[in-house]
Amino acid sequence: MQQLKFVFLIAVLFSSGHTMGQVDEAEVTNAIVSGNEKAQEAANTAAEVDYRKALALDPKRTEAQFNLANNHYAGAHYDEAAQRYFLTQKNAANRSAKHSAFHNLGNVHMQNKDYAKAVESYKNALRNNPMDDETRYNYALAKSLLEDEQQQNQQQDQNDDKNQNKDQNQEQNQDQDNNKDQDQDSDQEEEGEDGEDKEDENEGDEKDPKDDKKDQDKDQKDADKNDKPQQPKQQPKEGQLSPEQIKSLLEAMNNQEKKVQDKVNAKKAKGIPVKGKKDW
User: Fold this and answer.
1) What distance in Å separates the CA atoms of residue 98 and residue 126, rounded to the nearest whole number?
2) Per residue, what are the HEC states of 160-227?
3) How many Å apart are CA 238 and CA 64, to the nearest integer?
4) Residue 82 burial by CB count (10 A; 0-12/13-18/19+): exposed, middle or buried?
5) Greater confidence, 177 or 23?
6) How many Å apart are CA 79 and CA 73, to the nearest integer?
């Protein structure tokens, strides 16, 4: 349980640097006592006025610093309270005042959930008063909360690392999938280009339309020629031979002439003597 240490002083010890001519100690003390009474009545604003009045008269009065810090703590003004507790332990003339200032400073850090600083503050308080049970309890509580926090942070770091690795693996898998898709797209593009090349080759094999027209014109001419009526054969006039008869006569004459020539050649062959043959 976090409990504040309070200092309500009626009798005040004078520091060596103060004299009656410099500071009205009675007035300072009265201001502190008035502030304490108002603090007990929960009149924090009025109590703060009295504490500040005392500090204006004597800035190093640790009682005023300490009780003003408690007043800030009660109003949940923890930053202001921490500053006042720090000044208290710095200007404190004895170990008891330092112990109380460090104890309450630890309480401020506990309220801010800064457990590491709370542990250090309670340690300093125990150095000045090792027998205080409340300080030992608060120290043990702060230390336990700090260990839990460190374990949670460690677990969170591990979870963050796992999530980071998971995200990296997902990104790598996504990159691999994207690469596969790109490879498939590239293959499809290559197949498409091959198909286009084949189509281009087939288109190159096609006949020129001009050639088709020429062929069509030729076919049309042939058709016109075939469709043209044949001229009738001329019939031979009376007393004249027809071309066919003339051709037959010429062939017969040629055959007859050939036979006569063959006979002449045969006779000539028989009349030629054979060289070197004796007549016995």
Assistant:
1) 10
2) HHHHHHHHHHHHHHHHHHHHHHHHHHHHHHHHHHHHHHHHHHHHHHCCCHHHHHHHHHHHHHHHHHHH
3) 171
4) buried
5) 177
6) 9
Q: Give the rounded percent of residues in the chain with a pLDDT score beyond 70.
A: 59
pTM, to two decimals? 0.51
Listed residue (131, 136, 132) closest to 119, CA to CA: 136
Q: Which two tokens stand for residue 278?
A: 């004796």
- Residue 176's alpha-carbon distances to 43, 125, 165, in angstroms, are 71, 61, 16
* Residues in Cβ contact with 60 at an 8 Å cutoff, skipping those fewer than 6 apart: 15, 91
- Could you give the C-alpha distances from 184 to 108, 188, 192, 198, 279, in angstroms and in order? 65, 6, 12, 21, 110
